[in-house]
């Protein structure tokens, strides 16, 4: 059991972020052990053949199928939605002593030869890590990133709504079965951990993730901000195939484009992702979402440059009663 005590200062410094780099590294665990991540089997079947043709030897040596992986290859995000290039620059700039310390924590005995090369010349080895991370993202995640990003941002929106409605207890109550909030500011995580963790007024960084499912991961070692990585809501919809057309009665009632939008919003999505999913222009999606929003069937919020749409409770009931 890992215990975190969040006093007023820690809660005031607690924040959310999502990261393409975090997802890139987490997806390697699925690649190594797909049977432990059955929800992601459609993605795995799509990328496994291409992965076998890549040279990811150093990267895969640093990311075991489970357990600890060095934090320097995916440092906790330092902004709500960091740019992949900026995060990779942070990886490349890791101090050599941090590389040696975290590799020693991963390999209690002699590391494999490919990792020995990293230890012998950390600057050059980190460039190899960065190149392999970038290559893996482009092959395995680039096409999926808009939809994944929408899921992550929608989860953060949901958590913010929970916090505003019910406070910290509501924020953590449905985060993950392994996470439990106790009165007085104690957060308990049901994971194997045998050392105390002091937040020291740094707050807790909460990072939703698609590829973390079904578990949670934590970052506790200095100099990183204490971080909890947890499965995002809607992860089960990440790889759903394109559905059959919306029911004819619904298309007749609200029109084919609005019916398709309601159908596609099984999980929250950006306007651009909706446009690609249903095959219309972004401006057409924007116009139809405005109509659905005025009818109370869809709600929207903006995160940075992205407009996220989701079905409301009324929209869900309307969809089910229409035969969806």
Q: How many strand units?
A: 10
| Number of helical elements | 14
| Main beta sheet | 4 strands, mixed
Taking the alpha carbons of the first and last residues, their distance comes to: 42 Å
Structural description of this entry:
Helix 5 packs antiparallel against helix 8 (122-140), helix 10 (248-254) packs across helix 11 (256-264) and helix 12 crosses helix 13. This protein is globular. The chain folds into three domains: 2-15 and 147-236, no CATH class; 20-143, no CATH class; 242-321, Winged helix-like DNA-binding domain superfamily/Winged helix DNA-binding domain (Arc Repressor Mutant, subunit A, Orthogonal Bundle), CATH 1.10.10.10. A hairpin with a 2-residue loop joins strand 9 and strand 10. It starts with a strand and ends with a helix. The chain contains 14 helices and ten strands. The chain has helices at 8-13, 20-32, 41-51, 57-62, 84-92, 96-106, 113-120, 122-140, 145-173, 248-254, 256-264, 271-278, 282-294, 313-321, and strands spanning 2-5, 15-16, 179-182, 186-189, 205-209, 217-219, 227-231, 269-270, 298-303, 306-311. By secondary structure, the protein is of the alpha+beta class.
Main attributes of the structure:
Arc Repressor Mutant, subunit A; 3 domains; 4-stranded mixed β-sheet; 3-stranded antiparallel β-sheet; 10 strands; 49% helix
What is this structure, in a nutshell?
The chain has 14 helices and 10 strands. It has 324 residues and is an alpha+beta fold.
Write the layout of secondary structure elements.
Layout: E1 2-5, H1 8-13, E2 15-16, H2 20-32, H3 41-51, H4 57-62, H5 84-92, H6 96-106, H7 113-120, H8 122-140, H9 145-173, E3 179-182, E4 186-189, E5 205-209, E6 217-219, E7 227-231, H10 248-254, H11 256-264, E8 269-270, H12 271-278, H13 282-294, E9 298-303, E10 306-311, H14 313-321
Parallel strand pairs: 2-5, 5-7
Antiparallel strand pairs: 1-4, 3-4, 6-7, 8-10, 9-10
Helix pairs in contact: 2-8, 5-8, 7-8, 10-11, 12-13
